[in-house]
Structures are given as structure tokens and as C-alpha cells.
Design goal:
Length: 409
């Protein structure tokens, strides 16, 4: 509905927030609205636009509280359009896993912010349309099946204007969407926090571009469990004898001729003796290693090949090419390695050589070893090295647990 009954009040200051903000308050047909701004000039500018629209006799929308002149242009931008703009702005600098996380969160919340109407596609189809065709930059030109074309056409028409997110009720709808899976069950706390962080950043981006005066999610306080303290679970940590047994058992997996397990023994040794992440070990090159004939050696880590998925990497490979986690681009981490690992690496190079690009660990065809492959070998090695009650426990359940053992001993 539209109304010409508009009252715009003087600026006020909200001192209840941690950082005082400047409020623009007005009413449309008796319904109060307000918008907060970090600085007084921004608030003044917005208030002046409201007054100018009222003086011109423009009708104001009773849902958003905005005149037609402000609902056009920036105010008419849909949340879907905002999501696409955000992905465009962040894609080039984001890691493959960040791209995956970003599109996951947006594909969850975009379908929740829509106008009521008929013909809504199934949730699974909408999610696939967003995750596989609309949001990822390299995938937008792919040929689309008919059901995807229909879903995209529907979401483009139904997506709410960004301006409507100023309503607190809309912000709660966002939180509700982030809190639920497609089947209606609650999401894991960590998944909820990760998705909420993405959407919060999207709305901060909208504030930067002046599509919004403030971030609507900043006004919503809803607790979702305590943040888990990152501690090593002692139950997963193997002792030195168990670690040696596991590394030996790896060599029995796959048989002698196939060598699938033997060619991964030094890989698992890197996780245990050098406390390396799997992605760091997969990216390890011979030139990164100092391997003397006896005594301690050294590894200079500069790159990692984390598993991310072909959809999210620039190369189209399943493994991303990145610098070290939580370190500046190009920064090197020097890791002293004990004699047992030096021997494992020397034996590995002698028997299996290196990939064409100098990597130590590769599949029999020279590719980066898939996570599913080394996980399958590890599962079989546990069955060979551990007693039955340990196999059914969490002891060294994942290859990554070797790293926990390495830093715990």
C-alpha cells in the first residue's frame, strides 16, 4: 500500500549502543520507521531525501516506509542481485573453500527472502540453481536444464528488495533460514556460525555501498550454543608405538604390486613426525626438503593443496593451490624433522621418485592424491594395526589425528 501521510522528525542519537549512532525517524500512515547511521552527515543526507520526496508529493510505501524515488535505483536492488554483486567482489581473492562456504550460505538464505506467491520450485532445485549456476562466477554461462531455468526465473522475480531487510522481522527470517537444513532439522552450531558470518559480511557490504544504512543482523541477538573451545581430544591421540605400527600397516594395504599403501607411508609420516596438515603434505616438493644421510633434516613449507572441489578452484582441479593457512601469502614455515621421517622421505624418493612438478606424493598417474584415496588406505591400516576395540573407537580415526599426536607428544 502507498500513503501520503508522512511525518519526518529531527535527528536523534541512540546512546544505548556500544558506539552511538544517529537515528532518522519518520512515520508513514501512522506506522513508525527508523534508520540508524554511523555518522551525522549520512543521517542528514538520508533525512533530506525523505523530506524532498514528501515535499514533491511522492507516495510512501507502508511496508518499507520509503518513497518511490528511494525504492528505485539502489533501494530496488534485490537480495539476489546483492548476493551476486558480493560474490563478484570477493571471488578472485577468496580461497576455494571460502568460495564453497560463501555460496553455501547465500544459497541457504536467498530462497528465504522472497515475496509470497505461487509456483515456488522445490527447495532442492532452488539450492542447486543458486549453488551450481547463479552464484559461482565460472558457472554462470553453463547450459541450464529446464527446471533450473524455471527456478532462476522464479527467484529473480520473487527476491525481496534489499531495503525490506530493514524490518526486524526480515532479519529474524534470515536467522531462521540459517538455523535449519533443507529437511527442517537444526544445523550444527559451527555450520550456523559460519553461514551467519557470510551473510553478515554481505549486509556489511550493502552498508558500504549505501544500499542499507546499517546492518540488520546487528540488531538481532539470538544465542546458538557456546562456541566450542578448540582442544585436542586425547582419545584420538596414538602413542609412539601405535604410530609406528600404523605406518607399517599402511605398507600392507593394496598389495606389493599396486603399492597404493607403500607410496603413502611417508605422507602419513609427515602428518605424524612433522605435524603437517594433509594439504601441506600433498603440496610438499623435493626442493622444500633438506634430507641428510643421517641426523635431523628440515622442511620449508610454503604451499598447500587442500581438497576443495573442482567447482571452486580456478584451475578446475579438486585441490586448491594456496599459501599456508593463517599466514601471509608467500610466508614460509620451517619445520625441523627427526631422523625417522628423514629416512621415510629418502626411501620414498628412491622408490617412487617425484611428480612432474616436483611433488613428493602423487597417485600412480602423477595426480594429487585424493582425500578419499588416502582415507581409504588409512581405514584399512587401522584394521590391520589396531585391536578390535580400538578399531571401533575414535583412536586415530582420521589421518588428521596423526597431526594431533605429533603436537601432543
Amino acid at each position: 500500500m502507498k500513503s501520503y501521510k508522512v511525518v519526518v522528525w529531527k535527528l536523534s542519537i541512540n546512546r544505548s549502543a556500544k558506539k552511538p549512532t544517529h537515528l532518522v525517524r519518520w512515520s508513514v500512515d501512522g506506522e513508525p520507521f527508523h534508520e540508524s547511521f554511523k555518522t551525522k552527515p549520512l543521517a542528514d543526507r538520508f533525512r533530506a531525501k525523505l523530506l524532498r520526496a514528501a515535499d514533491k508529493g511522492e507516495p510512501f510505501d507502508t511496508v518499507t516506509g520509503l518513497p518511490d524515488s528511494l525504492r528505485g535505483g539502489k533501494a530496488a536492488l534485490s537480495f539476489l542481485d546483492l548476493a551476486v554483486k558480493y560474490v563478484d567482489a570477493r571471488w578472485a581473492e577468496a580461497s576455494a573453500k571460502q568460495r564453497d562456504s560463501m555460496t553455501d550460505a547465500l544459497a541457504t538464505v536467498v530462497p528465504a527472502l522472497v515475496k509470497p506467491g505461487r509456483g515456488r520450485p522445490a527447495p532442492e532445485v532452488l539450492r542447486r540453481a543458486l549453488r551450481s549456476y547463479v552464484l559461482p562466477v565460472p558457472r554462470r554461462e553453463r547450459e541450464r536444464p529446464e527446471e533450473i531455468v524455471t527456478a532462476v526465473r522464479w527467484i529473480e522475480k520473487a527476491s525481496l528488495p534489499v531495503a525490506e531487510l530493514l524490518e526486524v522481522a526480515r532479519a529474524h527470517e534470515v536467522i531462521d533460514a540459517l538455523s535449519r537444513r533443507l529437511d527442517g532439522k537444526p544445523t550444527a552450531t559451527q555450520t550456523y556460525r559460519r553461514r551467519r558470518a557470510v551473510v553478515f559480511n554481505v549486509l556489511e557490504y550493502a552498508v558500504e555501498l549505501e544500499y542499507l544504512g546499517s546492518n540488520p543482523l546487528a540488531r538481532v541477538r539470538r544465542k546458538r550454543g557456546k562456541r566450542a573451545v578448540q582442544k585436542v581430544d586425547r582419545r584420538v591421540v596414538v602413542n609412539p608405538w601405535q604410530a609406528r605400527e600404523l605406518l607399517t600397516a599402511v605398507t600392507y594395504v593394496g598389495g606389493y604390486d599396486r603399492a597404493s599403501g607403500r607410496r603413502l607411508r611417508a605422507f602419513f609420516g609427515c602428518l605424524y613426525y612433522a605435524a603437517m596438515r594433509p594439504g601441506e603434505a600433498l603440496g610438499l616438493r623435493r626442493s622444500d626438503c633438506t634430507l641428510p644421510a643421517s641426523g635431523w633434516g628440515r622442511i620449508e613449507l610454503a604451499a598447500t593443496r587442500p581438497t576443495a572441489g573442482k567447482a571452486w578452484t580456478d584451475s578446475g582441479e579438486a585441490h586448491d593451490r594456496r599459501g599456508l593457512k593463517q599466514r601471509a601469502n608467500g610466508e614460509v614455515r620451517i619445520v625441523p624433522i627427526p631422523p625417522p621421517l628423514v629416512r621415510l622421505l629418502r626411501e620414498h624418493v628412491k622408490e617412487f621418485g617425484m611428480a612432474k612438478d616436483g611433488r613428493l606424493f602423487s597417485s600412480e598417474r602423477g595426480n594429487v592424491v585424493a582425500a578419499s584415496s588416502y582415507s581409504r588406505v588409512w581405514k584399512r591400516a587401522r584394521e590391520l594395526a589396531l585391536v578390535p576395540h580400538q578399531v571401533s573407537s575414535v583412536l586415530a580415526f582420521r589421518p588428521y589425528d596423526l597431526r594431533h599426536a605429533g603436537v601432543s607428544q
